[in-house]
Design a protein that fits this description.
The structure is a single chain. With 69 residues, this protein is α+β, with helices and mostly antiparallel strands. It has a single domain, classed as Alpha-Beta Plaits (2-Layer Sandwich), CATH 3.30.70.20. 22% of the residues lie in helices and 25% in strands. It has a two-stranded antiparallel sheet with strand order 1-4. It has a two-stranded antiparallel sheet with strand order 2-3. Strand 2 and strand 3 form a beta hairpin. The protein starts with a strand and ends with a strand.
């Protein structure tokens, strides 16, 4: 299907800078004081890694939007 957008949603929880997302997808996520999403023109290349990072985030703040067909 493909991912068209990835972002950090701090509306409920805050990033705890655990670096799990960076471990799963180091080309997409960077963690300093908080996680940032690296602007990337084609997140499809890292679709599985993004999904795993979102699934394993302990505070569940990684969100992504899939492209519709």
């Amino acid at each position: 299907m493909g991912i068209k957008r990835v972002w950090r949603d701090d509306s409920v929880n805050q990033c705890i800078a655990c670096k799990i997302c960076q471990a799963f997808a180091p080309r997409v996520f960077k963690v300093f004081d908080k996680m940032i999403v690296v602007p990337w023109p084609d997140y499809d290349l890292y679709e599985q890694e993004i999904k795993e990072a979102a699934e394993n985030c302990p505070v569940q703040i990684i969100k992504f939007e899939e492209q519709s067909n």
